[in-house]
Specification:
heterodimer; A: ABC transporter involved in vitamin B12 uptake, BtuC; 15 helices; B: Rossmann fold; Rossmann fold; six-stranded mixed beta sheet; 22 strands
Chain lengths: 373, 503
Amino acid sequence: MRSRIAAVLLPILVPFMAIVAALLVGAVFLIALNTDPLKVYEKLISGALNSTYSLSQTIGKATPLLLVAIGICIAFRANVLNIGAEGQVIVGGLATTAFALAFESLPSGLLITLSLIAGALAGAVWGGIAGVLKARFGVNEILSTIMMNQIAIQLLILLLTGPMRDSSASATSANIIQTAQIPKQAWLPLLIPRTFFHAGAIVAVILAFVGFFFLWRTVAGYRIRAIGANPDASRYAGIQVPGTVVQAMLLSGALAGLAGGIEVLGVTHRTIQDFSTGYGFSGIVVALFGGLHPVAAIPASLLFGGLLVSGSKLQSVGINQAMVTVLQGLIVLFVVGSTEITRRYRIRRAAEQGRMPTLESEIGQPTLAEEAG
Amino acid sequence: MKAITHLEMRGIVKRFPGVLANDRVDLEIRPGEVQALLGENGAGKSTLMKILYGMQQPDAGEIRINGETVRIDSPAEAIQRGIGMVHQHFMLVPSLTVAENVAIGLKASRPPILNLNQVISRIEELSARFGLKVDPRAAVWQLSVGEQQRVEIIKALYREASVLILDEPTAVLTPQEVEELFKTLRRLCASGYALVFISHKLNEVLNISQRITVLRDGRVVGTLPTTEANREGLVKLMVGREMSLKVTPEPVTIGAPRLILKEVSALGDRKLPALREVSFEVRAGEILGVAGVSGNGQRELAEVIAGMRPLTAGTISLDGSDISRASIAGRIEGGLSYIPEERMRDGAIKSFTVAENVILQTHAEAPISKRGVLNFRAIHERAGELIRAFKVKTPHDGTPLRSLSGGNIQKLILARELSRTPKALIAAQPTRGVDIGATLYIHHRLLDQRAMGTAILLISEDLDEMLALSDRIAVIYEGRIVRILPRAEATPEKLGLLMTGGS
């Protein structure tokens, strides 16, 4: 009985303890820098949570993170390591912006929907290229997606300084690299006025549940998980492994592209040079944090959204950006490391029950496996 | 050699929640003897040996070496006391050479410089003395399974073990390699080593051992000198009741050809011809056995028929339609079932649940899924049927497959493949690594399937199995079918000769 309670509590308690431990280690750094860690941590927490506005900022940052993370869950479940979400976010943002600018006469609802679809499609194409390269020619997807990130960044600069450049007088004179502002009817409605809490957050949460349903309740999701867990057995069962790889990358890219589009329509209202601020990379951490489970990625995205928000606020109390990054890094390291503790605990429990996860049982030789009864 | 003149395990008890894995087990190990440890899967053989090798601690009982009670807390301590173990799954680093693998974990004679020449000459000495042919400079990944096993034995001998535990050493070997291994074991015995030979293969145990200890449900149910043992008696001890090992195929009416191969050729993994103009037909209600020494094209044959390997020439037809170019899914839909040789790798997804494994091929068919969405009620129903019909031991169908015992995973795969009422079935080494009870069960199921009119292609290296089940036996040698014999004309001698290229 006791061990059963432990089994439930452990996955909750361990990450929490890990955050505390990370903060303790961070305190050492802060003291060495002659700063009061308590003050900093107070700000760290309040910065993300203390007001409706701060909360909306946290949610605003969490939204694109969550969308990217859902896509990462799908790709990683297929054992396709999509590191290219950043590039997919960028092209998604660009496509959404371009569509909203080009068709500004459309009615609001239609314009928003079509602009977002354009962003998702662009992301899907960007991800799909890496998918096809892997499926057809066996090109390592880590390599190709990283390269596609570079191409996306250069494309962004090219478009923002050329064809899509904001031609308004103020931007030209200030030499700001950005597109023109999209028309107001393309903006995502704010759920609380004058905050960052826009309708995109609701879309993201809904999609997290859709993602869960897709992966565990549909034929296509079953296939994606199957090829990720055991490509040999999948092939044996008649599943088209290469085709499924492409599917996973298309979906993963579409969600990242949508993240870019929603960021444009909900927050920036135009594409600016660094509008993604690394969502594509943080989204990977969020997904891993959530155990590659789209619904578990919801709280994970809030944690990281909060860290991004309070991080920028810490600078206002004299903590420099480097230290903020150190603190964020510590928290990520400790929490990710702590999942290893949970994993080992599970293995030990399995061993105590006589199901020794030894090499034999891992490789799966039948003759030695113990009948646990 | 660290002399162990006498080793004794007394009253060993090991409890796991819900299971008594070892119940007051006594075992004596003497120099110059092969002590066989016989028992079904889950009888407690491996637990007992893990305790002796320091991998697990007993809840009660003691281990005595040369009369002195000892505690063995870790494999390192077991090795230090002169106990070596050859695991069924080799603990070798594939990218390192044989010598490097042998030297791994040992202190260099003059650290930090590693002088492998000394290691190499010692390996050469050991291999000459005990007939363990292996090149100390070869990388392990280049070695055959048999050679890798020799490296494991050398590793233990190099560490001066005088008691050597061999855990199912023959499970992975070809008949020829088994003979080689037995020669080595006899030499080791003659030099005063004590050997523990774990197996559930009666012939081998009767052949190599001096004494046999039989375990059942964690208890020793008998210890006897091999000279006094016979197959029937041992089976009775192992399974607890009389059991006929013989299955007798009922006469059935053999129908029309279901699976026809015409001059099929295919390449192996190294892009060399592995199948050469293979032709045969398997008719409804018939078991066609394919006998051969491992590596003569059996694996490629199964894969070509299943669609996992392209053919370079010839045609395959299933129930009248040409499937030579059909997709894997197309062949499955056409009524082909395949029990793959590497069942744990190809036949199941271990991180998936039992239910998810049941629908591996049928997940896109009604009623398992409708309009792309899985129907869990239908899935539970299907899984429940198979679990009951094939007596798969699992808490429920949502249990991850990896927590089932190997025997139960095998049963589940068998259940899945047979339940699809196939027109043709490829059974590749269906009883490899399976204990006596389960083997018998699988044989009966295959015969049931035959009676239902399935055309069965049985690929096996076990001649007893081949002769017991097959209606006709095709002998494969170097990728060619050299002869197809009716069962009445097939004898082990005749098959053995054909299998090795004679005529």
